Amino acid sequence: MLKKIRPRERAFLQGQRTIRAIDDADFATVACVHGHAVGGGFGLVLACDLRVVEKNTLLCFPEIDIGVPVPWGLAPLLIRDAGLPVAKELMWMGSDITARRAMRLGLVNRVCEAGVQN
Q1: Which residues are known catalytic residues?
Q2: Angle 40-47/75-82 helices, nearest 10 degrees?
Q3: Domain ranges of the chain
Q4: Does the domain at residues 9-112 carry the CATH identifier 3.30.70.2860?
Q5: pTM of the model
Q6: Is residue 9 classed exposed, middle or buried when 0-12, 13-18 and 19+ CB atoms within 10 A define those classes?
Q7: Mean pLDDT in consecutive groups of 10 residues from the start of the chain, 118 residues
């Protein structure tokens, strides 16, 4: 008998598959962030190969404030990119990361001016 998957569980599994597909892609992936990347949005950024954010961007996992763990199995990506001590801080404290700090930590490749349009 097949187990019935609840909507929340389905959403979690879909998010996890999406992150894995982006991270494992055979082509270059680019994240361009205009605004903030929180929770799963931060995860999408971590899954990409090249990450460009505006200087006013904040990255964080707000779920931590309500006792929900980092979503979609993102801990390994965060540990890979930021290192274990920083990953622990971000996952346990729920700290906001500014674009400048994200650049110093190696979480983003480039910070650009806000509001630049092509």
Answers
A1: 63
A2: 50
A3: 9-112
A4: no
A5: 0.84
A6: exposed
A7: 75 88 96 92 95 95 82 87 91 90 95 77
